[in-house]
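Why show two proteins at once? Because comparison is the fastest way to build intuition. When a single record is shown, students tend to memorize it. When two are placed side by side, the eye starts asking what differs. So, the first record is below.
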Amino acid sequence: MLLALLASTAAARPTASPLASSPSPWLREAASAPVRWRPFDPATLAEAKRTRKPILLDVGAGWCHWCHVMDETSYADGEVIRLIGERYLAIKIDRDLSPDLDAHFQRAARRLGSNGGWPLTVWLTPDGEPYHAATYIAPQAMKELLRTLADRAAGPSSLAPEAPEAPGSLEVARPGVLSVRAAEAVGAALLRFQDRANGGIGARGPKFPDGAAIQLALALADRRGEAGELHQFATRTLDGMARGGFRDHVGGGFHRYSVDPEWRVPHFEKMSYVNAALLSAYLDGWRATRRESYREVARETVEFLLSAAGSDGTRGGFHATQDADNHPGDDGDYFTWTQAELRAAAGEEAVRFFDARAQPNDLAGVPDRNVLRAGPLHPRSLIERLRAVRAKRRAPRVDTVKYAAWNGMVIVAMLEAAAALDLPAARAAALLALDRFLARDPGMHALASDGKAASPKDEVRLDAAAWLGLAAIEAHQATGRPAYLVAARSLVTRTDRALWDPARGRYRESTSPYAPPPSIGDNATPAPSAIIALLLSRLGALTAERSCLDRAEQVLIAFASEAADAGPSASAWARAALEHTTPRIQAVIVSRRSDDPRAAVLRDAARAAWRPGHLVRSHGADAKRILPYPLGPGGAARAYVCGPSACAPPTGDPARVKELVETWER
């Protein structure tokens, strides 16, 4: 009976789904689903108004485990399929491809009493007004809701009205005072909310990683010149994540989050932005402490980002995500191991190293699979043997869409890694990705796997512009090429034109009508307003453009009052504020050509140094531009390390450059 119903449903609908050509793999998969899913577009919304059918909206992503579960249970149930087909228009949204729509409906869900999350299931009137919201819904409950909520949509009086925005919620909070003390206050909040046993924020699960908080803590500890509580918070967190199952000990990198406070068992999806943020955090940890374990974790994270699951190889760009599982009932099988599998792959050494058990009970319903946990340093030969075995397994799907903001985050981290760890492959991949984005419309949100734009051409996003701009700044520091500074300036100019709100002294988050109100609170990624302030501050320091410095200060001040109440979620803002208000150290590299090999060695030495907020500026052979920084004897490249008061004597010794960056005007 069910097969007949599915067959008749499939035969009744048009063969060509509008989702079949979507850049999102998750939406393309939905094109062949039993439910006839449509895109969120004017044509679908107009059809709902014309037919007076309510809308069933599903917001999720390919990496979302419970989104797949709902597709495989509720949306595969014959009665659910019939009810949706008869009474609703069904819309599916990829939250990564359409983050503004996701934010809009998450806010609506909270107004309707749901906590939000993914999958997000929302009922809309034919006119597009949300009136009921939930997350995962099991088949029987789904059938009951589909029946009762279709009737509620028929009469406006039965709808739960959308609550108006709270007074002043679209306004910037009263500007506060910008100072080092404001950044220190966020650091104090990190200590109040920290998990003193396991590291990270909060003593309960689930626990999400926060690279910005770690970087802020290390920068504040460096400013104080002591290995105090903030330093301990950072190292405790880095150590906890490195030991736990949250880290992919075989493939490198990290999963999305831990379901428990001890970083033991993760949700297994892997996100490019998580790995970018933690790569930068471990690099800062390595430079600040010289602990070999941090260097090793960073190197393995680079390996993951350079793998087929992480990047597009010779074409350039970093993939968005890797799914957690392959099929119904799969709960991280690709990433986990039975004791017998470990023994067969690498002998008793592997069983002992990971303390693998026959019945570990790490995962509900899968009693024999071990989530690997171990010390932070791995025997290389052991990991290589396990990688070879895992490579024969069917790997979870990779979403090959390349999001501009997430790529910017990865590019920054990979260029930092190239200098700190001497990894030329990381530098090459980062520059290839950046050049690919800059060659296209630099304001775009995403590139599809075929290189075509995967977002509206006229859409400008603050996160994309800010992170690509920071990536261009980092590329200039790595290469000395002036063109990257020009690219960063162009991104700022375009963002100013499209998103600057002079009345409120801040940027809007995108040109989309569904864009959320700007906030300084970090979420899965750092707050875009904090990142644009960081970009403006660095660009102004490198180019001596007062307008950039003034705009950075204006943005930071606009959110200073909100940051004071935001606690740890204002970590990215606090890092930008600390960097902007602390006198900078700059290493000025002068050479006849930007591609002078000796200049490159001096640049890398300066960039590998541990001095939070320092910048590396390069000048070519134009004598007017390099004065008062003359070349060395015979035109040799030289480095001038300068603070706010004076410059150190010039040097051509890379070790001396690194030493001066770390110690000058302390």
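Second record. Ask yourself what differs from the first in the token line.
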Amino acid sequence: MTMLFIGRDAELSQWTKILNSPNGCAVVVLGDAGMGKTRLLDKMVGSAIERKDMKCVAVRYAVSSDESPGMITRLILEDAFMAARARIGQLDITNKRFVQWATLFDNLKLVSHTTTNRYDFLNALRYVPQKHILDQFVQRLEFLSHHLEGNSRIIIVIDPRNIESSVRCEAWQQVFTAIPPRIILLFAQHKSGTFVSESSIRSLQSVTFIPDVGGLQPFTQEELNLLELSNDANNAIKVFDGMPFNVASAITLLNEGNCTLNELPRVNDPNAIAASLWKRLQKAGPDAQALLYAYVVLGVAVPDSIVCEVAEISDTVLRTLLADKYVSSLIRTEPTGRGVCHLFLRDYIRENLLTENGKWTDEAKRYHHRAVIVYFNILRRDLHSDPLATMQFPKHSLHAEGTRAFIDSLTYSERAFHSLGFYVTYGELLEQALGLIESGSEDEIDIRYLLGRLRMQQAQPEEAKQELNRAMELLSDKQNLAQTAKITIELGKLFLNEFQSAESKQLFKQAIDAYIESNDLVGAIEGRVFLSRSLAADGNIREGELLLLDSFNLCDSIVPLRNRQRAKASLHTALGRLSERQMKFQDATEQYHHALELTQYLYDREMEALLYNDMRDVTKCEGNLDNARKNQQAALHIHEELGMVGATAEDYYQLGILERRLQRVDSSRESLTKARDLFKQIGNAEKVTEIDLMLR
């Protein structure tokens, strides 16, 4: 779209006053659809960055209407953390989502390789799953505000969808009341949206609306005269009454599209303009049409590699299309990739992909199906879970293949959601799935099971029991051994965590029997590992060892090979821990080395870190503190790489104690200080107090 910008002097003057004030605030640009909100946002941000008397840096998020405040703020926190990791040398930036934050850090000199407290800076930006996301968001803004030097501003742009419900308004209100100095949250909103009409938002002193009342107005004739159009063109666009989208689109059709004046719509209707834009695009060929269809189906701005696969075009074809002035004018570049330039055009194209009853056409489903394949492959091959793929994979599965595929995708991506800390988002998707299925069905059992596991991750044992018990109730009249075993073992874990070994043993035995009967040997071995822990808790260590040794016979029948090796690694680890309990340190070390060899082959980094911690304990008990320290550092390196805050805190704590025993006073104090700060982040007051006493 032609980057048309004229007028808006009053709005820009209002924005200048906001920038001049050091107070933190939220700024909401108001206007009907097509009134140029996004273009004004761009101009406002550009004018801030160009100022010589202050340093202003902006990061931009184009979000969709189904993204909650928690989802949006979680993404912002992740980007800031990952960019900080890159700037201290822990990560190479390959994703455009992080580049904007990296630029912010560079321009404001917030973190560098030479910063003595760079790891403290990194740890302060970590996301903590156990704490409320909006509270963390405000705390991170406060942290960044505290580190700003001179006359600096951080502008976070959130554009352009409406906030649909009053519930979400309440969440944003929590943020707006606590924005720290020199931080500006910049929104674009429809003037009649709930977000704008809520009196609770309107009454906040920290929120400013641009313009104050009425929303953005159409261009005046005096402003249109600034375009210096020919008399014929000027007369042709008068029918649009100064509506920015219609005017800009008409100029795009005339200039980049080489259309004649007679080909312009004769009515002031954005849908008619969108139809003209699409009609002209079709002249560019089927590849151009496929590209725009792919952007619309994908729904969010994506990297070029993804849209090429979904549109089934090559990189060369994409470059050719982007070199076409008209095609490129309909595509907008965002920090996360590219997408359709305007909602009116996107919605018009989307209508072409829907049936009369509002369902996706078969052609649209093919695009969704290709998106499923792309995101599935990303999730399958990447060591670190990709946020875009994690979020979008279930959505496209639903549109491509229906509810059952949606549930299967949620099951497959469970680990990715958990590793990213997207607990709220995952819970919302599971609740959405519940609303799509028949009550009491096997689908509901699957969802209740996933919800139970989610509540366990969120440290909500009672809620977890409620979901898992509901799933068991639904199973009572069904003969599904596989589901029974899965749910039973999760209930057993809950009782084991609560030191109720008798109840946990009974549940684990039931789960093992169900796994064996359903021929799931991997599950049976998992059940035996947990049963051995329950037996050891009751002092029956030898019985637990015999159970584990016998389990190796089951491994020989497991296929594929990776599953067999993973099961063997689990058994070796469990045997090592039982040997360690009996102070048989040489036996324990041997078992851990067997497990580590298998785990490194599987490239399971999280399990590898746990094994290094196990070997730390053994070498420490043997009196070899130097080796214990090396094992602890290896675990710490992996946990930091994976961004696991709680585990990293414990690693620094254990490292500090080891260094104290080795009389490495300065190193010990540094490690313990980092551990204390991390424990403070995750709300472990007991550990914080303990470490404070040690540091005195």
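One difference worth noting in the second protein: The radius of gyration is 29 Å.
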